[in-house]
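Could you help me review a protein record that somebody else here produced? Do not assume that whoever made the record got everything right. The record follows directly below this note.
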Amino acid sequence: MDLAKSGNVTAIRADNGDIIYIPSNGIMPKLPLTATDVDATTASSLTDLVRTQAVDNSLSKEERCLASAVYFEAKGESLAGQLAVARVVLARANSGRFPSTLCGVVLQKGQFSFVRGASLPPVQTSSVHWRNAVAISNIALENSWKSPVEGALFFHARHVSPGWRLTRLGSVDNHIFYR
């Protein structure tokens, strides 16, 4: 099933739930992939692109805020779900309706349940969840992949019903996204 077509890439959902990105020329890249082989026009899946991201602990404050939001809000979700969360934070920072910095968005009072007292909780930076959160944040910051719910400014977990009167864009994993 086609999820999105964007210029030179088509996104489809595989039977296992992975989102697979296929170049419009239909030519899949050689395998195994290396960091120099994979970019936004040749990666066969978001998983491939995540695997090639250089991840270290030399993040800027803004990068750490975005990665923390992905980590705490979506670490148990698919990579597409994590990307959707990252893209919401970026969309908010660029919207003019929220603080203009990533940390401003993430630390804004009452917006993210993991934030306590305007500070980020500690992160287990040696975990695979943190590595994925940093990789997804890099991909979102580089605008390498679009989210299946691109343009969303709000989301909530499926188990809550906030009664928002917003335009629902769709759901990814356990989150529902709105504009």
Q: What stands out?
A: Residues 2-51 form one domain.
